[in-house]
Amino acid sequence: MSEQSARLSLGFSCVGHTIAHLMAPIFFVVALTLESEMNLSHGEVVSLIVIGNILYGVGAPIAGWIGDKWSAAGMMSLYYFGVGLGMIMTGFAATPTQLVLTLTFTGIFGSIYHPVGFAWLVSQVKKRGAALGLNGVFGTVGPSVAALSAGYLTDAYSWRAAFIVPGVLILAVGVVFFVLMKRDIIHDRPRADEVHHKAEKGEIVRTILVLAVTMLCTGLIYQTLSPALPKLFSVRFTELTGFDSTDGVFGVGMLVASVYIFAGGVQLMVGRMCDRYSLKKLYIIVYFFQALCLVAASQLGGAVLFIMMFLIISGNQAGLPIENSLVARYAPPNRRALVFGLKFILAFGFSGLGVLLEGKVYDATGGFYWIFVILGALAVVGFLGGWLLPNDKKVQVPAE
Question: By percentage, how much of the chain surpasses pLDDT 90?
């Protein structure tokens, strides 16, 4: 394998990860406008994306299985074209029902990236932890780009432009990827020097069972906070954002973007640590940190709460390269995409109900206190689960 192919694979995987995290954050910022335009409550608006979110996760193992059996690169090509087309169609939706259909279409094709893109990436690079950390930064950039672009395009043009413009750009990326794949500049043949971790069957089963619980906790926290952040900032930071029912949403978008940008830097740092330190210890630490911050957030307000949201999102995102490193370490190479798919059916499928949870709890209580309490309890479960992972040694990577 040429180093050019490896670099391009890393590049397109990173761009693909950014794209994978555009749809939902764009929708949650646009939702602030749709509440008045479609005369719906906050909970009713965010529920429009629930089916798409669930299929985004439920479709992951199917996409991973096809990627293992057919072609990871071919599935990535379908991913770019399907998501781009779905975003454009969402921009032309005229009713809540049409929004449900187009967001569902986008979610189905969006389900391709995490199982296929991650498995493809770890088969192409030497230092998996560093690559997954960098890839994670680009995933975290997705909500930042989404929040800023959705806020600006909604204020300057309309909420429809917030979907159509990125949809066109994604289609353009898909064209470039397809051309490079057809010329065999990009492919999915694994590296000849790939290092495999030899684990006992008991270790593998134990890891899978523990991660099934902890990854669901990670996903529920992420999915619940995604719609909560824009609403939280619009409600509690009016003096900072200038947002009210008649004003724009760009200020809210800037605050949400700043949170995810900061979290991306933390994720890059933790990704590099995955190549040096115990994955189990790192995992336990990030969950303990999340639990403390979520409990504190339930008691805070004002600017201090804004700082706490930086820490909560950073802790949640820091756990992702650790989880992905664990999956890459214990999954058989010829079933890696399928195993990643099973991970994301938990992280994005069942946990997609977190969006519904946020909307229902907010509509019922008119606030965020119980949302933070529930998420804090989930973080405690994740912390306890981390102790049950097998003890691991320092991850070995091939020399440069």
Answer: 30
Q: Is residue 228 part of a domain?
A: yes
The four Cα atoms 81, 86, 89, 93 give a dihedral, to 10 degrees, of 180
Q: Is 383 exposed, middle or buried (0-12, 13-18, 19+ CB in 10 A)?
A: buried
pLDDT of residue 113: 93
Q: Using CA atoms, how far apart are residues 122 and 340, in angstroms rounded to an integer?
A: 11
* Distance from C-alpha of 292 to C-alpha of 388, rounded to nearest angstrom: 20
Work out the number of other CB atoms within 10 angstroms of the CB of residue 135.
29
Residue reference for tokens 């979110």: 53
Q: Are the C-beta atoms of residues 133 and 267 closer than 8 Å to each other?
A: yes
Q: How confident is the model at residue 396 (pLDDT cuts 50, 70, 90)?
A: very low
**Domain presence at residue 17:** yes
Number of domains within the chain: 1
Residue 75 exposed, middle or buried by CB count within 10 Å (0-12, 13-18, 19+) = buried
Q: Average pLDDT in the 283-308 region?
A: 87
Is the Cβ–Cβ distance between 167 and 46 less than 8 Å? no
At 190 the pLDDT is 63
Q: Give the per-residue pLDDT at 234.
A: 76
Residues of the domain holding 229: 3-185+199-386
> Is 400 a domain residue?
no
For the question of whether the overall pTM of this predicted structure is more than 0.85, the answer is no
Distance in angstroms (rounded) separating the CA atoms of residues 187 and 185: 7
Give the closest residue to 266 by CA, choosing from 381, 140, 91, 83.
140
Give the pair of three-digit tokens for residue 19.
């794209």
Q: Which residues contact 246 (CB under 8 A, 6 or more apart)?
A: none
Query: What phi-psi label fits residue 95: left (phi over 0), alpha (psi between -120 and 50 degrees) or beta?
Result: beta
Q: Is the pLDDT of residue 123 over 70?
A: yes
Instruction: For residue range 212-239, list pLDDT tens digits in order.
Output: 889 889 888 988 888 888 888 777 665 5
The answer, yes or no, to whether residue 389 has pLDDT greater than 70, is yes
The backbone torsions φ and ψ at residue 192, rounded to the nearest 5 degrees and listed phi first, read -70, -25
